[in-house]
Design goal:
Length: 182
């Protein structure tokens, strides 16, 4: 048992070290199409990041360090801010069980899997809901994603994860006419 644990921890440290001290490929993240729906009381915005977590992230996610991904959403109408929110997804990995966990922040949804492919597919998705008012008509929606600086205790080093996105914050804009949405 302890030998298996030691092997998993050691392999995670080696993988992370190789990533941090060697060349990396990086990613070119961008948002796919954004979906906007409404109900009587809420606006629902959903979509996904494309090409954001494929290269280098399996080692980062498997390190055992919690990795947050931040999203900012800004809703405006006629130049006036109606809503401005920040939410996050946080990935953690249990080196003992080999299970990845994704905490989707404001939704209180947890996703668990032993598959890095499933984790990457899920961490790329986002859903956001916010209340709207009856007089809102044409909304301008802007969404941006970013990665933080994270301290890797195994290496006693802080790393700016934006390097994995080549220091580019992916963003997208959408326009929604609430009178036409269902």
């Amino acid at each position: 048992m302890l030998e298996a644990l030691g092997t998993k921890v050691f392999s995670g440290i080696v993988s992370l070290s190789l990533l941090l001290f060697s060349s990396f490929k990086g990613n070119d993240p961008h948002f796919g199409a954004i979906s906007v729906r409404r109900s009587e009381s809420f606006i629902y915005v959903s979509g996904s990041l494309q090409s954001a977590f494929e290269n280098d992230f399996p080692s980062i996610f498997s390190s055992g360090t919690k990795i947050p991904i931040y999203f900012r959403i800004h809703i405006s109408q006629d130049g006036k801010t109606l809503s401005k929110q920040r939410f996050s997804h946080t990935v953690s990995f249990d080196t003992v069980t080999g299970i990845y966990e994704l905490d989707r922040g404001k939704t209180n949804e947890l996703f668990r899997s032993d598959s890095i492919e499933d984790l990457i597919r899920e961490v790329s998705k986002f859903n956001f809901a916010f209340p709207h008012q009856a007089h809102w008509e044409h909304l301008n929606i802007r969404i941006e994603a970013e990665l933080p600086k994270v301290r890797f205790e195994q290496l006693n080093k802080q790393v700016d994860l934006m390097v994995l996105w080549k220091y580019k914050k992916p963003s997208t804009k959408a326009v929604a006419n609430l009178r036409q949405l269902q």
